Amino acid sequence: MPSNTLTLTKWDAAIVLKQDGSFEASLPQIQGEYIPDNVILGAALAFALRNESLCTLIRENFERECTGKKQ
Which of the residues 5, 8, 27, 47 could staple to 12 if both were Cys, CB 3.0 to 4.6 A apart? Predict the structure, then answer.
């Protein structure tokens, strides 16, 4: 499969999920007190990907939402 290029601007955050189960995250370098919401969410998602119990909860919720099987 050919590689792709993502173009990120100064304040963009990105997470690339690899086929082997690993991931790469790109978060902007923040200086000062202002942290944009997208950067906070990106950091939270990157943390969740490193936490097996959080990943399980996310997957289970996603499956419930997709199948329409609410608890």
Answer: 8
Residue 69: band (very low, low, confident or very high) from pLDDT cuts 50, 70, 90:
low
List CB contacts of 28: < 8 A, sequence separation 6 or more.
10, 11, 12, 13, 39
Q: What is the pLDDT of residue 7?
A: 93
Tokens linked to 30 = 């923040």
What is the model's pLDDT at position 67? 85
Q: What's the residue count for the chain?
A: 71
Q: Count of CB atoms within 10 A of residue 64's CB?
A: 12
CA atoms within 13 A on the CB side of 29: 0
- pLDDT value of residue 68: 78
